[in-house]
Amino acid sequence: MTKDAVNTPFSQGELGQLLIERLDEAARCSAPGAGVTRLFCSQEHQNVLPLISRWMEQAGLAPQLDAAGNFVGRCPKAQAGEKTFIMGSHQDSVIEGGKYDGMLGVALPILALEALKREGVTLPFGIEVVAFGDEEGVRFPTTLVGSKALAGNVTPDQLAVRDEQGVSLEEALTAFGCQPDEIPAIARNPANTLGFLEVHIEQGPVLEQRHHAVGVVTALTGIERHRVTLRGKAGHAGTTPMPMRHDALVGAAEMVLAVDSVLQRTDKLVGVVGKLDVHPNAVNVIPAEVTFTVELRSPERHIRQRGREAVYAAMEEVATRRGLVLEMENTYSADATACADWIMTSLEKACADVGQPAERLFSGAGHDGLAMQALTDIGMLFIRCKEGLSHHPDEAITAEDGEAATRVVMAFLQQLEQP
């Protein structure tokens, strides 16, 4: 890049195209297979950091890997300890996910800061952009470790959880080049933190139906996750009479249908049984043990509680009838979180400033804001995604919408006023 290019403001349309190019580049840091697979503390996670580092440096940010696996870029004011506004999202993906879930919220605010730098704009407060290490909770049975670390809420039991290969989170962080014993020291000071903003694809169809490029989020849904273990008795598949079997997989199959039935008949409650493991998983052996996950989501705690109780009662009935042992363990829980009124108002003004209509809408997905709200006021800007599709290789946005959202963030930062 020439010196003149570095100092020349981006032309209309250039920001959106560059954003797409950067996200395409990041998507190549993926495990083999369809879409994007980039898990926490993986080689793919390691591979994407130099890209993010380069983007940060071009925006005038100093990049650094922290003790919790977050990659953080700070402007000079933030480095000097001045009051700071935080932006960011997560770098990790689901298995065979899309290019934009998470990484969009890393690349876009960095690009917005680079554009402001080119225009000679100096913000009167510090800025840091965070590429959180783990939001999806795919590798380890915990999530939001990075954002919880900034909020000062990581506990020793979270670091002790293990992945399917038996590697603990603490061991994975250490191997990744982090010092997990220093996690308490990276907690931000609430008095010095102005707020937190995440930019994210909507992961739903509302903006596309409204024909809007962006939307202002009002709140993030409440989420809880459970690990269910069902134990029966292994036996020879050819010699054990059917009435005498205690087949854990057959019981689990009934339970999956029972969970779906509860979800189908409970208003404002959604969920999924997304993962299932069978032991001994042999072609001619009656399954002795099945472990599966149950995730429940609702903006209202009492609805999740009622759904959880109904799910457990249904599973208990199956276990009793089939002579199986049932255990259900809560592995994650977060209540719904409201976005700050002053950030929503500021985002709406920024949208108006750049000529973008922006209605308010609720997020049915969980995000790092669920943890960051313990530190500071949070806000969220949604970007329209094709057919509302997410967690899928065909996840897509347009360069035009990326451009619009980047300019909204630029306007937001320039007129940012805390109440």
TrEMBL record:
Molecular function as annotated in GO: hydrolase activity, acting on carbon-nitrogen (but not peptide) bonds, in linear amidines; metal ion binding
Top-level taxon: Bacteria
Residues passing through the membrane, by range: none
Record keywords: Hydrolase, Manganese, Metal-binding, Zinc
Chain positions recorded as Zn(2+) 2 binding sites: 101, 136, 391
KW NAD (keyword) present: no
Free-text remark on how the cofactor is bound: Binds 2 Zn(2+) ions per subunit.
Family affiliation: Belongs to the peptidase M20 family.
Pfam families listed in its UniProt record: M20_dimer (PF07687), Peptidase_M20 (PF01546)
Protein name: Allantoate amidohydrolase
Residues that bind allantoate: 225, 284, 297
The protein's assembly and partners: Homodimer.
Record-linked NCBIfam families: hydantase, PRK09290.2-5
Chain sites annotated for binding Zn(2+) 1: 90, 101, 200
Organism for this UniProt entry: Vreelandella glaciei
Peptidase M20 dimerisation domain: residues covered: 221-318
Cofactor: Zn(2+); Mn(2+)
